[in-house]
Specification:
Number of helices: 13
CATH architecture: Alpha-Beta Barrel
Structural class: alpha/beta
Largest sheet: 8 strands, parallel, barrel
Strand order of the largest sheet: 1-4-5-6-9-10-11-15
Number of strands: 15
Length: 373
């Protein structure tokens, strides 16, 4: 199976640094016009989709991507959203509508949430495992509402009678789901199409794949695998590593200490694993071949980057693909410029090696009212 290469929409802001610290000139507020530039660049360069994040610091993913669907032709939108804050029947309806107006370009990323403080902003006071129980019920109803008959469900967290949509989405959106806790892994094994991990060392990721394959197999299912990474790719390896030095210089020590303290309070097992990769030390950031953990010093979520020459970054992606990863969700600072570095430097190499199939030979329908080229 060929690899699927995706990019990221920075709906919480963008810039030349990896945190809100440093030069004001390095920070780049985003608006719909800038996000359109990023999406159009990803579309032009041949990325398959863009992940749009969720959270109180982001613009709403549904609204932004619906708007951008008119500015792009082939690009898919991996919309992240939190289950439990809206009805699963309403989510099923939104997804069906999105597929119709975009020409079938919606993917869904289910984010249960690991920060209790942020969950309370939405009025959610369930504990960690209860949130995943609710997620499982949500996904059961979501898929049920896309079925041929009205769907009834009465669980501990969600009760619906006759859940349905006017017409099911075509195609049914793939469900991406991440989480490193036992509760999260079981939900992924039972419900996800693609299990999404943050970029750890190859040995750690291989262990995750083997465990998830076992869980899914016992549930009578098969899941595919994706990995979330940043990238810094240049013509010469030394130029890419020079970027990491510049990024580090822009981060004050007190910002690192503040972020690391915050990570100790998270309920997210994935976030705990990210923090453990470097322990808050600037001297322990190269954790594998071309794998740099500097983003995780101050940033939650995915904290590692592939760094090196275009050939080196392509080789690492080929190795991850050989391990079993089919989906690569990538990003860089700033997202517009780094999309071009990767899209012009690495993607052609991956196409020549056969890891990525040229999208122009496999394109599906374009959005409604736009002819596919």
């Amino acid at each position: 199976m060929s690899a699927h290469i995706h990019w990221f929409l920075p709906t919480a802001g963008d810039g030349r640094n990896i945190s809100g610290f440093g030069s004001v000139a390095g920070r780049r507020p985003v608006d719909i016009d800038y996000l359109s530039q990023v999406a159009q660049a990803a579309d032009r360069l041949g990325f398959e989709a863009v992940l749009t994040p969720t959270g109180t610091i982001c613009e709403d993913a549904w609204l932004v991507t619906a708007a951008l669907s008119r500015d792009t032709e082939h690009l898919k939108f991996l919309v992240a959203f939190r289950p439990g804050f809206i009805s699963p029947t309403l989510a099923a309806q939104q997804a069906a509508t999105f597929q119709r107006i975009s020409g079938g370009r919606l993917l869904l990323n289910i984010v249960t949430g690991g920060d209790p403080e942020e969950q309370r902003r939405f009025g959610d006071r369930l504990d960690h495992d209860q949130r995943y129980e609710r997620t499982a019920e949500f996904l059961t109803v979501l898929r049920g509402a896309w079925g041929p008959e009205p769907f009834d469900f009465h669980g501990d967290h969600i009760q619906v009678d006759g859940a349905t949509t006017s017409a099911p989405p075509d195609p049914i959106p793939e469900i991406f789901f991440g989480g490193a806790s036992p509760a999260a892994e079981q939900v992924a094994a039972d419900h996800a199409d693609v299990y999404l991990a943050w970029g750890e060392t190859p040995a750690q990721l291989l262990e995750r794949i083997e465990r998830m394959q076992g869980l899914a197999g016992r549930a009578g299912r098969r899941v595919r695998f994706g990995v979330r990474l940043h990238v810094i790719s240049r013509d010469r390896a030394e130029d890419a590593w020079a970027v990491t030095e510049r990024l580090l210089e822009a981060i004050p020590d007190d910002a690192v200490a503040m972020a690391q303290r915050a990570f100790t309070t998270t309920e997210s097992v994935g976030q705990q694993r990210m923090a453990a990769l470097h322990g808050g030390s600037r001297d322990q950031l190269v954790i594998g071949p071309n794998l740099w953990a500097g983003f995780g010093l101050v940033r939650g979520g995915a904290g590692t980057a592939l760094v090196g020459s275009h050939d080196e970054v392509a080789e690492r992606i080929e190795e991850y693909h050989a391990m079993g990863f089919d989906h690569f969700i990538l990003s860089g600072q700033p997202h517009l410029e780094e999309a071009y570095w990767f899209g012009e430097g690495v993607l052609p190499r991956l196409r020549r090696s056969g890891v990525v199939v040229d999208r122009s030979t496999t394109s599906g329908p374009g959005p409604v009212g736009v002819a596919a080229s």
